[in-house]
Amino acid sequence: xxxxxxxxxxxxxxxxxxxxxxxxxxxxxxxxxxxxxxxxxxxxxxxxxxxxxxxxxxxxxxxxxxxxxxxxxxxxxxxxxxxxxxxxxxxxxxxxxxxxxxxxxxxxxxxxxxxxxxxxxxxxxxxxxxxxxxxxxxxxxxxxxxxxxxxxxxxxxxxxxxxxxxxxxxxxxxxxxxxxxxxxxxxxxxxxxxxxxxxxxxxxxxxxxxxxxxxxxxxxxxxxxxxxxxxxxxxxxxxxxxxxxxxxxxxxxxxxxxxxxxxxxxxxxxxxxxxxxxxxxxxxxxxxxxxxxxxxxxxxxxxxxxxxxxxxxxxxxxxxxxxxxxxxxxxxxxxxxxxxxxxxxxxxxxxxxxxxxxxxxxxxxxxxxxxxxxxxxxxxxxxxxxxxxxxxxxxxxxxxxxxxxxxxxxxxxxxxxxxxxxxxxxxxxxxxxxxxxxxxxxxxxxxxxxxxxxxxxxxxxxxxxxxxxxxxxxxxxxxxxxxxxxxxxxxxxxxxxxxxxxxxxxxxxxxxxxxxxxxxxxxxxxxxxxxx
Length: 532
Prior knowledge:
Blueprint: E1 2-7, E2 10-17, E3 31-41, E4 50-56, E5 64-66, E6 76-77, E7 82-86, E8 94-101, E9 104-107, E10 110-111, E11 116-126, E12 131-133, E13 137-141, E14 151-153, E15 156-157, E16 160-161, E17 164-168, E18 178-185, E19 191-192, E20 194-197, E21 201-211, E22 216-225, E23 231-234, E24 240-242, E25 245-253, E26 259-266, E27 269-273, E28 275-276, E29 281-287, H1 288-291, E30 294-304, E31 309-311, E32 315-319, E33 325-328, E34 331-333, E35 338-343, E36 349-358, E37 361-368, E38 375-376, H2 379-382, E39 391-401, E40 406-415, E41 422-425, E42 431-434, E43 463-465, E44 469-471, H3 481-500, H4 505-518, H5 522-525
Parallel strand pairs: 6-13, 16-22, 24-32, 34-40
Antiparallel strand pairs: 1-2, 1-3, 3-4, 5-7, 7-10, 8-9, 8-11, 11-12, 11-13, 14-17, 15-16, 17-20, 18-19, 18-21, 21-22, 23-25, 25-29, 26-27, 26-30, 28-29, 30-31, 30-32, 33-35, 35-38, 36-37, 36-39, 39-40, 41-42, 43-44
């Protein structure tokens, strides 16, 4: 029976069996040892000597992790990182290092792949099988750029946006998430997406989305902007007077989208489309006679392709298709006068022309506006012209209003011969010449006509005025009344007889004219009613 196993150091272990083995602890530090040992029986016999070499390693290896710094932002990797682990062992030696990525252990080095968050563990082994575990780390990996879906929000008509727009990037990222959305207009600085006021014209807009890892993506759009109203205008001036078929004109200021609609408005009502030219000037023909005389508001309306519109500031225009109305006595003679009235209540008188025509006479007298003479004396239109009486003078009146309408009137005036002088005999054989009394004429009070020069006659012995009238001399001779009274009686009764006789034709015409004008001009006739 084997009782124990002995060695150089004594009994290693007891067995007390016929055969077998036993286990003993070697109380030696790490290292390499040689042990001689044999078996001892109950009879005192020993077995053959055996020698065993021992390598003792009870110390685990060291561990050193190798983790590169994140190459992205906010602790994220944007490229797959390579992780490794190493160690040392002074006894049995270093065997290997392993990296756990999720559930699987991988021999070091190990490259982390796949976007997302990775839980990483490290461990090392020595040759003896001792191991060392490292600390756990998290690796965040995002190698994918975010997506962008650019969008422009705002009022849009026919492909044109207004000035106020909202620019959206529409970024998305499935791993690290979006950290910033920015836009750049026409190559300018990057600005946070949102509301913008853009100028008219074409713009190239870039949209950029950036994720937390630092990956970014850029999209681009080109848009047209027109947020400015067209500016129409009417060239007709305020208060302008027009007549007939009148051509109105103006211009529309439009610098971007172009004109889509243009209209002519009269008192705010649509009259028709403007005749628009390539340079945006326009014309419109309007028959003012169909509209009737009066004041009208003229304007234009324009709308551009982008939907912007505006009406021009209206101007007031006078439509006047009615010529002045001329009231003129048709006939009188140089011993009296005629009356002229011109009625123009719309645009007003611009000019009155009076033409004096006869044998050896052709004169024109022009008056501005209402300055024409209302009382017409023939001598005022003869001037220095020598017309031999008796003669008939034609006075033609042409009245023009501010709108260009014209009307004409005419009168026939008789230039009388001078009255004969009456010679009275005087006692003592002296002859005294008595000039016939000239009827004093009184005119209605009125402004003096422009072209007619007023002549002031000073008293003199005998003064001739206008070739036909005689003024009584200021020196009166001594008269023999015994001779004058009989003559006066004859003249008086002869005149009284003529008064009751039928009136001469010329006087009848004057009476008829006075009757027609009496209602219109009673103040004038108060002083001249005694025409007979």
